[in-house]
Design brief:
By secondary structure, the protein is α/β, with parallel strands linked by helices. Helix content is 31%, strand content 11%. The protein contains 13 helices and twelve strands. The strands form three sheets. A seven-stranded mixed β-sheet has the order 2-8-7-6-5-3-4, with helices on both faces. Strands 9-12-11 form a three-stranded antiparallel β-sheet. Helix 5 packs across helix 9 and helix 11 runs parallel beside helix 13. The longest helix has 28 residues. The chain is globular, with a radius of gyration of 25 Å.
């Protein structure tokens, strides 16, 4: 009868005692310290526009033939959703089979009917006049409807009221942001990390804006410190503050006293630009507060002298992303400037869709829509948080607004504990999320990705229907369970680089 071994168990799977070369290689693969050691990160860097850019005033980079096939053309880099869609396509996703995938990366809400909401639009009238160009500032009837809605929701009893002259209709939120950026002079522009991915491209493309970052602290629930912002305005000469509110991707919101103080900065030679696309996606604890929304418009004293710029539209709140009807609200002289920038940037929004949007902004209809939306999306938020909790993936700072969850992966086994690798592993399970590094607004792309404050995060969207959410969370559960059971050796490498390496896939 053999004696039981008293030798301690080995950390190396191939044999006890001294590690084999294979064991050492697998050990190194598990823990990455620099982006050059990670296949997922190298795939990201190889995407055109994602290479580090030269320092300001430094020597230009060597021409990259993959990026600069047309003389003088420079790729700005893709937003998170575009990059992730391209990587999903390389892994077999196409729009014909999209129902087989769970897209928790999408920055759009579900567009179908939801309980107790008004009927969805199902037809678009097209009077002959609507076949003409619309003004670059938009159709007057829609501009009036937007002004009336904001006055009804946020400015009752105030002497200063918005009129159509304070509203510019634009073909999408990015178009609105670009119009605004095009009319800003040579100034220092404050932005926060993390924030909406498109700000990276705007701050890269519009060179007159000098970006000045502020890193938001998760220990402080990503709160924007208004007192520190005031100090930065004085010490750094900030002329513009750009922010999303409610906050994408953290799901937090600047409200009440903080929002009032932020707006007050506009009366002291600082322009406040607020992206308010998620202003209806507020999840109050009390049932009596359901149906209320957030906007800086509530705290503007004079609509023509307070330099507050609001960007919003039908995309998120009305759940009509395909309409591409949005607006910019601000002082009259801003709207005049936006008319001029729009004439060469985008030419204006779709005329028939503008006319079709007018009845959707009727205040009573909006009240019903807001209430239904908040109840439906709050239930989805709670469902996803409960399911993540069951997977031991508790969210550090649960969302109070938007339809996003900012998920910290640091406690997962390496290499699954960073956003890009987590994303690539989920693609194998036909699930899409957005790696956190896309919300690190880093216009020069020079920072080692492993040093990004967003590196260990992913953004999950609970915008899709609940069946898609469950499909995606099931996939997350499989990947996480595999990693916790020691399956990390198969992770972090052997990713499909392109469609060419994915035979039989047709787009």
């Amino acid at each position: 009868m053999s004696r039981p071994s008293t030798r301690p168990s080995s950390a190396y799977p191939s044999r006890s005692g001294t590690p084999s070369l294979r064991d050492v290689v697998h050990g190194v693969m598990k823990i990455f310290h620099h982006e050059k050691e990670s296949e997922a990160h190298q795939i990201f860097r190889q995407q055109v526009g994602h290479q580090p850019k030269p320092a300001l005033g430094g020597l230009p980079q060597t021409v990259n033939p993959d990026e600069e096939t047309v003389p003088g053309i420079e790729h700005p880099g893709s937003t998170g959703v575009i990059y992730c869609s391209d990587r999903a396509i390389a892994n077999g996703f196409n729009y014909a089979n999209s129902h087989e995938w769970a897209n928790l990366g999408q920055g759009a809400p579900e567009v179908g009917p939801i309980p107790n909401a008004p009927p969805r639009p199902d037809s678009i009238p097209m009077p002959v006049d609507s076949l003409e160009y619309a003004p670059t500032t938009g159709v007057k009837a829609l501009r009036e409807a937007v002004a009336n809605l904001y006055n009804d929701n946020y400015r009752k009893g105030k002497a200063s009221q918005y009129t159509y002259e304070n509203v510019c209709i634009v073909p999408g939120g990015r178009a609105g942001l670009s119009r605004v950026a095009a009319v800003i002079g040579d100034v220092y522009c404050s932005y926060q990390v993390p924030d909406y991915t498109a700000y990276d491209q705007v701050l890269s493309a519009f060179k007159r804006l000098v970006p000045v970052p502020t890193a938001l602290d998760p220990k402080n629930k990503y709160r924007l410190d208004i007192e520190q912002t005031k100090k930065d305005i004085l010490s750094q000469g900030l002329a513009v503050v750009l922010a999303s509110n409610p906050r994408n991707p953290t799901g937090q919101v600047i409200a009440g006293k903080d929002l009032k103080e932020l707006v007050s900065l506009s009366r002291d030679n600082t322009t406040i630009i607020l992206d308010e696309f998620y202003s209806w996606y507020i999840y109050p604890d009390s049932e009596k507060d359901i149906g209320k929304s957030i906007s800086s418009a509530e705290y503007v004293e004079d609509v023509n002298t307070d330099s507050v710029v609001i960007i919003d539209g039908l995309t998120k709140n009305w759940r009509l992303p395909g309409w591409r009807i949005c607006w910019v609200i601000g002082p009259k002289n801003l709207i005049t400037a936006l008319s001029q920038s729009g004439s060469f940037l985008d030419g204006g929004a779709n005329h028939p869709m503008q006319l079709a949007a007018v009845p959707l902004l009727e205040p009573e209809r909006v009240r019903i829509e807001k209430t239904a939306l908040q109840k439906h999306f709050k239930a989805k938020r709670d469902h996803v948080l409960k399911r993540l909790h069951a997977l031991h993936l508790d969210v550090d700072v649960p969302p109070q607004a938007t339809f996003y969850i900012w998920l910290n992966l640091e406690k997962l086994p390496p290499p699954l504990n960073n956003g890009l690798t987590f994303f690539e592993e989920l693609l194998k399970e036909q699930t899409i999320v957005i790696p956190g590094i896309f919300f690190d607004i880093n216009p020069a792309h020079r920072r080692n990705l492993f040093n990004s404050p967003c590196h260990h995060y992913v953004r999950l969207s609970f915008g899709p229907p609940i069946a898609d959410l469950d499909k995606g969370i099931d996939a997350i559960g499989r990947v996480v369970a595999n990693a916790r059971m020691g399956g990390t050796k198969k992770m972090g490498h052997s990713y499909k680089k392109s469609l060419e390496s994915n035979s039989g896939i047709h787009i």
